[in-house]
Here is the input.
Amino acid sequence: MHPVYKPETLKTLLLSLNLSLTKEKGQNFLLDSDVLAKMASFFKDTLPILEIGPGIGHFTRYLIEKNQPVTVVELDKGFVRYLEKELGKKIKIIHKDFLKFSFSDLEYPKIVLAGNIPYSITKDILFRLFRNLSFIDEAFILMQAEAGEKLLAEPGTKKYGRLSVLTGFYTEAQILFYVPPKAFFPQPHVDSVYMRFKPKNKDYDKGFEEWLNIVFSNRRKTLASVFKKKLGNEIFDRILKEFAFTVNTRAETLDPETLYKLYLKMKQ
Here is the structure.
């Protein structure tokens, strides 16, 4: 086992790099080698890999063994310095905020995306993923269990929201397995999930995302109360009839495909 996989050694290393973990950033290192190996086992040996926020490279070391080019995007200067020293000859390091990173700058037309993402910016990272699906063959993301379960929520449930819709419409998503708190340092208070996202062949529609923002910011309201005044009675009533909706239909009860068709109809 590499020494950085031991909590005691990790603490010493972080101190030497003048780094500290913060709850605000949701930083938790995955140290369990069995879990890391299981995560890496889902990667095919066929495409370059882009890793989000590698930290000191716990997972990166496993990705390197896939014998494909590995690029990492890391914001923290201390982690970048460490990665350059330890793994610089084996990976390409981009010192940048992933949320500001441009996929078009990559050397490769398609990549496999990997990341253990902090809860505080999970939504932001997922939106970046959805908006750049044309560059992504597959994505394997480790996130807080509650966040992952929301992505797979069914229409009509409390957890169903705009990210559930975007996930279902643009990707084939699944939870591969759960990871317990004891696998991390420091230990979080909740389970995590390792998820796979396989993009469908659909162009991302930013207008649909913005329309969903309106719909789900008024999730308890009916479609009639949200759109009837804006569209006018005649047009709205015609849409209700075409989709076989009632005046009490709420967007939160509709599946992603139906919502997209409704969005296109209202956009006409």
In short: The chain has two domains: 3-199, 206-267. The domain at 3-199 is CATH 3.40.50.150 (Rossmann fold). DSSP finds eleven helices and nine strands in the chain.
